[in-house]
Amino acid sequence: MNTILTMTQKERDRLTILNQLSERKITVAEAAQTLRISERQMYRIAKRYRSEGDQGVLHRSRGRPSHHGYPVALHTRVKDLYWQQYRDYGPTLFSEMLCAYHSIRLDHETVRRWLSQAGGMTVGRKKRPHRRQRPRRSAIGELVQFDGSPHDWFAGRAPVCCLLHAIDDASGRVFLRFVPSENTADTLRTLRHYCERFGIPRTLYTDHGTVFYAKNTLTDVGRAMTTLGVEMLFAGSPQAKGRVERGNRTHQDRLVKALSREGISTIADANRYLDEHYLDDHNRRFAQCDGLPDVHRSANGFDFPNIFCFQTERGVRNDYTIMLGGNYVQLLDDDT
């Protein structure tokens, strides 16, 4: 009966040398030197070749489970957990859940390979067009990218809201805040929280949204940043502020699933979760602050309530009233 043998290139080369050895065209020492093995091993291989023929060239472990591999029961459990509870998770996040909730420690590439073999459809890496990366800044606080990400953060449990996202360009440290929408009031409030927590950055890098940019004038956000001595830079495209855009995609995966696991469905509870758990854990794992100087300026001496606010010019009438938003506002006399 004819048998079809599948050989690697290494095994084919070994078979050629063994044929030459059996025909006495080369010596055992020459064969061992060519294959880069010891003469003792060469004698063992030649003996097996004489007794088994070409079959003797094949590696003895072929088709057998590795002695250093994981148990089959573990393979089965991991695959069952994935399809039953985590089928929308990527391999990296799934491996973290296995460690945190099921006491299973596996490298994410091992998980990726197992899921690929099991027919998982969400485990492949998405190919994106290559773009030349801009070098990171050299100090923490030298440049902070800021963006809003409207998304279904509560996965249908509550209305769509917006995540305001500030990320330090040098270290990747993030500050996040959930708000109903990317509006001026909530943006000012979020930037104030950032400055109170980390200090005043040198530069704020945003898009041309109306909250940040207005032609020939300053928005309230721009005026607040100018008062603090913060330079405003505006990106010409989403790709230009790729660090914060990539961060948005990361949080739209990790944070949405975390809020779902915790059963959180309100903005207030989500912000509490950010402050108490998510931010510190995310920055501890992904931010790289070691060895970087911090050039944030101290917030001491600044009147934040009168900086992070709305300001407008109005003429005061003789009766100490102004017109604001179509309504009269009565100003109090200092003497009263």
What is the topological layout?
Layout: H1 9-22, H2 28-35, H3 39-52, H4 72-85, H5 91-102, H6 108-117, E1 144-151, E2 161-168, E3 174-179, H7 184-198, E4 203-206, H8 220-227, E5 231-234, H9 242-262, H10 267-286, E6 321-324, E7 327-330
Parallel strand pairs: 1-4, 4-5
Antiparallel strand pairs: 1-2, 2-3, 6-7
Task: Explain what the structure shows.
This protein is an alpha/beta fold. It contains 10 helices and 7 strands. Strand 4, helix 8 and strand 5 form a beta-alpha-beta unit. Helix 2 packs across helix 3 (39-52). The mean pLDDT is 86.
Short account of what is shown:
By secondary structure, this protein is α/β, with parallel strands linked by helices. The chain has helices at 9-22, 28-35, 39-52, 72-85, 91-102, 108-117, 184-198, 220-227, 242-262, 267-286; strands spanning 144-151, 161-168, 174-179, 203-206, 231-234, 321-324, 327-330.
Keywords:
alpha/beta, 336 residues, 10 helices, two-stranded antiparallel ribbon, 11% strand
The average pLDDT score comes to: 86
Percent in helix: 40-55%
Order of helix and strand elements from N to C terminus = HHHHHHEEEHEHEHHEE
Tally of helical segments: 10
Count of DSSP strands: 7
Q: Major sheet, described briefly? A: 5 strands, mixed
Task: Tell me which oligomeric state these chains represent.
Answer: single chain
Poorly predicted ranges (pLDDT <50, ≥5 residues)? none
> Rg from C-alpha positions?
32 Å
Portion in strands: 5-15%
Q: Largest sheet, order of strands side by side?
A: 3-2-1-4-5
Class of secondary structure makeup:
alpha/beta
Bulk shape: elongated
Distance between the termini: 113 Å
